[in-house]
Write a structure and sequence with these properties.
This protein has helices spanning about 5-15, 15-25, 30-50, 60, 65-90, 100-125, 130-135, 140-155, 165-190, 260-270, 305-315, 335-345, 365-370, 385-400, 420-445, and strands at about 195-205, 205-215, 225-230, 240, 255-260, 275-285, 295-300, 320-330, 350-355, 380-385, 405-410. With about 450 residues, the chain is an alpha/beta fold. A hairpin with an 8-residue loop joins β3 (about 225-230) and β4 (about 240). It is a multi-pass membrane protein.
Length: about 450
């Protein structure tokens, strides 16, 4: 995430303090704090609805879209905590201004709270199937509408037409407009570039698609991703995939898609040449730096896809020495190995190293440092692959002298949890440990 975007979000939630502070002298401070928490939750939810729109320029302020999805998740969690505290802490006080709908607004606020609680928790429980999650996620906007209704008509110590009321209302309207756009208007007026599927082939466990534009087409940079949907009943839902081909003059696109879920398996079985596709994008800031500093590329499994585009672009780019580590665990053919070897032969500054764990070989920070003669201070490292591998390599490389800011990675999984699996595993292990400890004590003879 980019710092300017985070600062704007923090300031947006702090600005209401300007108007809440003078009220503290004449109102119950605890109840007023509860009112502030409710207002902050609405502000964060309104911003969150806006972040989901993917409007042009949003990456400039908040960072690449893969990071925005992480921000989107955590804003939802923080807003949920603020809503929960607002509900727990008594917000009632004497002399409040309301209207004939204040009672209904109170009840609707309760429904909104519990609806958002269920749906936001469902969003961070990653083992819920994607299609069920996406369907339920659309309902968040409905409960946000109910929360906005609660705010507009509930009794409160200020009017909707005072500066504080207008400020909070603006974020409610922002969220409502964003939700209506994404759920109703955008599907009726799809935005994107129309393509035709020209080639479908299997490369190892990947489905490769080559698309030809039916109009101007989309211009992209190596390493970016786009949202793809196929004009077919089973494949009409859009999904994000990395573009595995370098930019072409005819603006053709290549996707290399692994069978990881229901949609990608259906795509493998269903997609055929001649089908129409809609591509929306491009997105992401995972791109090569300018200059001639040494670069290390690490692609693990399907994480090789952005580096296919990187490698192709080296034919015309002016770059320093590049070493590509392609980490696989294949017993037979390695996807794209021949293509990468051919590019490496044609591009003098690219060296390909295939690291095959099936042969007992592992990539370590020691090996990377050794290949750079121990000098990691000037190198840029680009990684795409499993999170655990990324964290381990980054930690070890930083300890060996690499600057953390020069370790670049893409959030490969846009839908992430908040550590519920880790927590469950820890609780299970802890429970087993305590049970074994207790049984061991019972087995010991009494003194």
């Amino acid at each position: 995430m980019r710092l300017p975007g985070l600062i704007l979000i923090v300031l947006a939630t702090l600005v209401p303090v300007i108007w809440f502070a003078p009220l503290a002298g004449e109102r119950d401070a605890v109840a007023l704090f509860s009112q502030y928490l409710g207002a902050s939750a609405l502000i964060l939810m309104g911003i969150n609805q806006f972040l989901a729109t993917r409007v042009a320029g949003i990456e400039t302020i908040f960072g690449s879209l893969d990071r925005i999805y992480i921000l989107h998740k955590w804003l939802g969690v923080v807003a949920l905590v603020a809503m929960g505290l607002h509900d727990i802490i008594d917000a009632e006080m004497n002399g409040l201004r309301g209207g004939p709908l204040s009672g209904i607004a109170e009840d609707i606020g309760e429904v909104s709270l519990y609806g958002l609680l269920i749906l936001i928790l469902a969003s961070v429980i990653t083992f819920i199937p994607y299609h069920l999650w996406k369907w339920s996620h659309r309902l968040i906007g409905v409960f946000f509408l109910m929360g906005a209704f609660h705010y507009f008509f509930i009794e409160k110590p200020f009017s909707n037409f005072e500066p504080l009321g207008l400020y909070i209302s603006a974020f409610c309207i922002l969220g409502i407009v964003s939700y209506v756009w994404m759920s109703l208007l955008r599907p009726m007026t799809p935005r994107g570039h129309v393509y035709e599927v020209d080639l479908v082939r299997r490369v190892g466990g990947l489905t490769e698609l080559v698309l030809l534009p039916k109009g101007r087409g989309m211009k992209h940079k190596p390493g970016q991703f786009a949202f793809l949907s196929i004009n077919d009943g089973a494949l009409g839902e859009e999904h994000p995939f990395t573009l595995s081909g370098a930019p072409a003059q005819d603006r053709s696109l290549r996707f290399s898609i692994k069978d990881l879920g229901d949609y990608t398996k259906r795509l493998h079985k269903t997609v055929e040449p001649g089908m129409e596709a809609l591509v929306c994008g491009p997105y992401g800031h995972f791109s090569m730096p300018k200059g001639r500093d040494p670069q290390i590329w690490i692609g693990a499994g399907v994480g090789i896809t952005p580096f296919l585009a990187f490698a192709e672009s080296l034919r015309t780019a002016d770059a320093g020495p590049v070493k590509l580590y392609y980490c696989v665990r294949e017993q037979d053919d390695v996807p794209y190995a021949v293509e990468l070897e051919n590019i490496a032969e044609a591009v003098p500054n690219l060296e390909l190293v295939i690291v095959n764990s099936a042969e007992g070989i592992r990539l370590t920070a020691d090996r990377i440092a050794g290949d750079l003669d121990g000098d990691l201070s000037t190198a840029h490292v680009f990684f795409c692959g499993p999170v655990a591998m990324r964290k381990a390599l980054k930690t070890d490389l930083v300890l060996k002298g690499m600057r953390a800011s020069r370790f670049h990675f893409e959030e490969f999984e846009m839908r992430t949890g908040i550590g519920l699996r880790v927590l469950a595993a820890w609780l299970w292990d802890r429970g087993v440990y305590e049970l074994e400890k207790r049984n061991s004590a019972l087995r010991q003879p009494a003194e």
